[in-house]
Amino acid sequence: MDGVLLIDKPAGKTSHDVVAMVRRAHRGVKVGHAGTLDPFATGLLLVLLGRATRIQRYLMALPKEYETVAQLGATSTTGDPEGEITHTGRVPPDPPELPTGEVRQRPPAYSAIKIGGERAYKKARRGEEVDVPERVVHVSRFEQRWREGDRAAFVIACSSGTYVRSLIADLHDGYCLELRRTRIGPFDVADADPERLIGLQEALAFLPHVALEGERAKAAGHGVGVECDADGDGPFLLTDADGAIAIAERQGDLLKPVVGFRA
């Protein structure tokens, strides 16, 4: 039971709810996920089973794609329908100016970012003032698909760590009525199937592969660095005839396993 499930999360469920459901179905197997979705949001959630929980950070670093429907002329304290709504009547022009490339944004106070060791949303719910630092993200695509009165739909492709709620709020004024994650790296929500477990080697197909044999494969399986003329610093997926051995990074002339799958 080592691999990744592609789950199409419904609205009203938390990412933790989905993980708990999978954990009940696969008792005794370690379960996690790679990237939280807000309860009101829907779409692709990568649920990790067994040794796939070790690759969480590599999956979380992948770019994302979203579709969102925005309510214009109003603001929300949370950036979504669950917050305190203020109708301002101020709407962005049509078409609006949609930023791409490097974008500076301030994540919402109601977010899972840790401030002083505590999740920002917990402080915000207690009424505390939350100063979430700005960050630089990369937006490769930001398009308006349609606009009807005070509502508009957008498609967004962005780097990991981007808050779509902030992108919409920064249009002045608007908040997300609906939010759907359609893609994470090579994974598409159209392929979601809670019954199909994607194995480690297939799940890590986006990494450059280095095939090993014999003693070199055995050494890598024990965490020992191996010589290789592969280009770049990695990370690389080391494999042999039995599948994934480890994720490795370059250390001098060696590829050093940093995440192993054989022990």
UniProtKB/TrEMBL annotation:
HAMAP family per record: TruB_bact
UniProt similarity note: Belongs to the pseudouridine synthase TruB family. Type 1 subfamily.
Name listed for the protein in its UniProt record: tRNA pseudouridine synthase B
Domain Pseudouridine synthase II N-terminal: 24-164
Region (Disordered): 74-104
Pfam families in UniProt: TruB_N
Catalytic activity: uridine(55) in tRNA = pseudouridine(55) in tRNA
Annotated EC: 5.4.99.25
UniProt-listed PANTHER family: PSEUDOURIDYLATE SYNTHASE TRUB1, TRNA-PSEUDOURIDINE SYNTHASE
GO molecular function: tRNA pseudouridine(55) synthase activity
Active-site residue list: D38
Function: Responsible for synthesis of pseudouridine from uracil-55 in the psi GC loop of transfer RNAs.
Keywords: Isomerase, tRNA processing
Lineage: Bacteria, Bacillati, Actinomycetota, Thermoleophilia, Solirubrobacterales
InterPro entries documented for this protein: PsdUridine_synth_cat_dom_sf, PsdUridine_synth_N, tRNA_psdUridine_synth_TruB
